[in-house]
Design goal:
Elements lengths: L1 H16 L3 H11 L5 H12 L7 H14 L3 E5 L5 H9 L5 E6 L2 H14 L3 E2 L2 E2 L1 E5 L2 H7 L6 E6 L6 H11 E10 L19 H16 L3 E6 L5 E6 L4
Parallel strand pairs: 1-2, 1-6, 2-5, 6-7
Antiparallel strand pairs: 3-4, 7-9, 8-9
Length: about 240
């Protein structure tokens, strides 16, 4: 009996010793160097307008994998106003080509303006950020498999991730890295579907299905991280 009691106490002691996630987030953000000077104004403008953009911890994650992978081609699903594409362009190797997809016409137009204002323009006669406007599920099917990508960033409508996954895997080069943002949905994904408001239950179910599909997909090796609002990092295995 005392043995069981000791195990319970050990569990409580371990839980008590775990760092407070909120305090950890504050510390990490405080220790994170500011992003590119020319994008700080755009970041604040987007936040003030309520446009969701990548959080500082997610910026760290992307910057790390850009340094490790040194991609020559990046595919982004979910442009918004273009902040994340411009952020990746800043840290990617010279000549890296980014294709980004946005469904909302208003945000696509804002993104084009921001690319003209903050981007590097043309390089060797080719634009190094190309925006495709429309439904990603349709546009992804139109991209040829031989135009594979070394890195893919998934940050679109969360309930649609599961629809995009087959083509995302198809277009990811062997050894390529896919980063999926916002998998925790502000913590809701940790709760039972019955604890989630009725209007969010479909998204909740689809995100859980997406995470399960990532973890069970034999062509991928996936790591789930609590970074920011949660992120999944998936590598396409080279031998499959």
């Amino acid at each position: 009996m005392s043995g069981d009691g000791d195990k319970v106490m050990d569990r409580y002691e371990r839980e008590a010793a775990m760092p407070d996630p909120a305090r950890m987030e504050v510390l990490i953000e405080a220790m994170t160097p500011p992003g590119p000077d020319h994008l700080q104004g755009l970041e604040q403008e987007a936040l003030s307008a309520g446009v969701p953009i990548i959080r500082p911890q997610t910026q760290n994650l992307i910057r790390f994998f850009l340094a490790v992978k040194r991609p020559s081609r990046i595919l982004e699903i979910g442009t918004a106003v273009g902040f994340s594409a411009l952020f990746m362009q800043h840290y990617a190797p010279a000549g890296c080509r980014i294709i980004t997809i946005e469904k909302d016409p208003g945000r696509a137009e804002q993104a084009r303006g921001n690319f003209r204002k903050f981007g590097k323009g043309e390089e060797s006669g080719r634009e190094n950020i190309v925006l495709m406007e429309g439904d990603a599920a349709q546009l992804l099917r139109e991209i040829r498999e031989d135009a594979s990508f070394d890195m893919l960033f998934m940050d679109a409508a969360k309930g649609q991730y599961i629809r995009f996954l087959p083509d995302a895997i198809r277009l990811l080069a062997p050894g390529g890295i896919m980063i999926t943002d916002n998998i925790l949905q502000e913590g809701e994904i940790l709760s039972s579907r019955f604890a989630v408001t009725r209007r969010n239950r479909t998204i909740h179910a689809r995100m859980r299905a997406y995470i399960r599909a990532l973890m069970e997909e034999e062509r991928l090796e996936t790591l789930l991280l609590p970074t920011g609002d949660g992120a999944a990092v998936s590598m396409k295995k080279a031998n499959l």
